[in-house]
Sequence to fold (351 residues):
Amino acid sequence: MSKSTVSASANIAFIKYWGTTDLERALPCNGSISMTLSTCRSRCTVEFIAGTGVSTIHLADDDKPGSSLTEPPPRFRQRALDHLQRLQAWAQTQQHDADGHWRVVTRNSFPAAAGLASSASGFAALTLAACGALGIDPDADTRSLLARRSGSGSASRSVFGGFVEWPPPGWPGPGLGDADAEATCVARQLAPADHWDLADVIALVETGPKAVASLDGHRRASSSPHFAARQALLPARLDAVRTAVLARDLDRLGPLLEQDAIELHLIAMSSQPPIFYWQPATLAVLATVRDLRADGCSAWSTMDAGANVHVICAADDADRVAATLAQVDGVHQVLRDRVGDGPRVEAESFF
Ligand code: PMV
Fold:
């Protein structure tokens, strides 16, 4: 096969990856646990063309074949081209003929300017579509490994649906050996999507691109005096979150995920130089979520490297949470998502 289209979803971490021992290959200092989403997706068509030529990467304006195309931001374009080259080099080590160039068209289903982390879904979809275009069908560990090597560590979780754990290198978890800590640093599914019908109601308070990329945040994280304290308490927190997810216990999970997100931002704000992702409306949403809880609704906030707030709640509570968040001053839009099944091969391609 020389052309393949794959869509993959974003994921929201309950315990966040923040800080690396190897930025380029996204080797995390700590384990993380996430939920893969359903509707916030990236769809990507990749064609592998034998022989020399110039590789191209474009963004599609809509989902239909023949959609008009725009140039991607230069930083994304370069990261994507580097990753495709990396995949070619890897394919050659697997005795595949990978001498050629690429044509890529990709699109996010969620608002491009929403400041939502799109690198996880984007690089998971790009990795899997490129493998398909090369005619390779890697096993689950290898998919996660290749997605991680894009440099977007959270992409290693987006190759699975449902609830996903990504341990740090050398972690003695199931399926991981010590032989090669880099090659075994992969995510695994904790439970499939139908294990627990959780919703993610996203309050968009920021519509432009965020000021500091997560790669810079990872780079600076260990300069915070609070970084080491978080690392020390994370093993116990990961155990507690894993247990809560497996037991479908939102009242145990919620306080842990909220605390972990606040600590990520505490580290960001105290890094050198400091990073302030929150906007005034971020705090207003956090207060509204506390009010919802005081009113008997089990809803819990988490934020990635940005100002937007993801509110995790039972699917049955999502209507009420979304209606309440829409009333908060400074919330531009409320997106509704829920746990999802993970990547899928799509029949319809962009070209
Ligand atoms: O995968 P990256 O390099 O975009 O980093 C992800 C960082 C967070 O979204 C803040 C946390 C996480 O684990 O998803």
Q: What stands out?
A: The mean pLDDT is 94.
